[in-house]
Amino acid sequence: MLSLNKSPLVLILLLISFAANAEINNLSVRGFLSQGFIHTNGNNYLGETQSGSFDFGEAGLNILYRPFNRVYWASQFSIRNIGDHESGEEDFRIDYGLINFHLTSSNQYDANIKLGRFKYFYGLYSDIQDTPTAIPGVLPAQTMYFEYVYPNLVVDGLQLNQSFRFDGFGDIDFDLMYGKLTDEEKKSNDALQTYFQLYGPYFPGIQGEVDAYDGVVGLQLQYMSLDNSLLLSYGHIFYDGTVVVDLWNQDYKLTDENDLVIDVFSFEYVSDNWTITGEYGTNRTVLSRKFLNIQQGLTTELFQKVRSESYYLQYRYQLSSQFEPLVRYEVFHYDRSDKNGSKWAAANPAGKDYWRFSKSFVIGGTYNFSESVSLSSEFHIIDGAGLNFIAASNGAKDNAIENGFDRYWNMFLTKLTYSF
């Protein structure tokens, strides 16, 4: 739960909310406060949740300032207290902070360049995932927008955004990005700790180091129909460099090199009262491993490609001006060539096949008490612990590999949000 005595930003937000409902001198200030509750059985998720947890709060302030017609500055500052999966509680962070320059404009073409901190090109919700009122329900589909990982996919760099308008057809946007990672050291430490957990029991006195990715390159192509009812999108991300992990003790040395490429296909169709949304994404990891037996001077090499996949289909219906229920089915496979995990489990006796997939049926919705106050709730029926295993691999304290995971489990989430 967000505590006022530890979070001066919360007090600032409450004060600003009384005076920030209008734009003044080209300055727009908006924000939100939210407090949620999570309860799970079988496995933890986003904290110690099997006995229920209120460690599910957020507060944010977003600012838009337009000093000139062709220039604006936009930023969002937030604090989050969501379980133990982030470094410390109630962390202050910059979700995004950028300057946009409008380069040119005509009836058929627009071009902008952005400099600063921004989210990856990843699906429909990546750049609004930190704004509770912009997300249907409580959380976006976790098989795609994994809360332990994707809110941190932030880079410092530049974007080129281009929009082409075609009479009788619609708009096509083509965007390019390049950025440097903002938390490379933390990702390196988490990766190293995961390797220590996996290989430490077999290599007494193990030591290691990690050299992580340097930068991220991305492109995004979007189509919007003339009546704004149909949106189609494709995003492609690849990393500039590789992750190199070196482990060693007096007898052995292990070197892993990993490359990662991400592709996401998205669509959304909006009718008068209902909206259907679907996305499909793949993460392709290329692993090159060298294992050296120092005493014998023998080297064993392994080259492996693994392509994980995630997808979901979501239906929302505007039942009234205040209430919008939703249903969603979402799936994650760690390796789409081994969807049920049987091959991996055979090669890793300490693991379970259901650690490699997750399937979830979700029912929920949002009720708007007013323009400023809303309540969202969801209930998940889950088969598989693939997301829990990934959380453990990313250093989450609430999901420890040595404790194991249940295959069948449920999750209830609810969140009250005040926005201004």
Q: What does this entry look like structurally?
A:
With 420 residues, this protein is mainly beta. The chain has helices at residues 8-17, 184-199, 342-347, 386-393; strands at 27-41, 56-68, 71-82, 91-105, 109-119, 154-166, 170-181, 207-211, 215-225, 230-240, 243-248, 252-270, 274-293, 298-317, 323-333, 357-368, 373-383, 408-419. Strands 1-2-3-4-5-6-7-9-10-12-13-14-15-16-17-18 form a 16-stranded antiparallel barrel. The longest helix is centred in the middle third of the chain and has 16 residues, at 184-199.
Spatial extent as radius of gyration: 23 Å
- In terms of structural class, how would the helical and strand content be classed? mainly beta
The coarse overall form would be globular
Total number of strands? 18
Residue runs with pLDDT of under 50 for 5 or more positions: none
What's the mean pLDDT score? 87
Determine the number of helices (DSSP H or I, runs of at least 4 residues). Answer: 4
Query: How would you sum up the major sheet?
Result: 16 strands, antiparallel, barrel
Portion of residues in helices?
under 10%
**Strand arrangement across the biggest beta sheet:** 1-2-3-4-5-6-7-9-10-12-13-14-15-16-17-18
Order of helices and strands: HEEEEEEEHEEEEEEEEHEEHE
| Beta-strand content | over 45%
Separation, N- and C-terminal Cα atoms: 20 Å
Provide a short characterization of the protein structure.
The chain is mostly beta strands and 420 residues long. It has helices at residues 8-17, 184-199, 342-347, 386-393; strands at residues 27-41, 56-68, 71-82, 91-105, 109-119, 154-166, 170-181, 207-211, 215-225, 230-240, 243-248, 252-270, 274-293, 298-317, 323-333, 357-368, 373-383, 408-419. The protein has a 16-stranded antiparallel β-barrel.
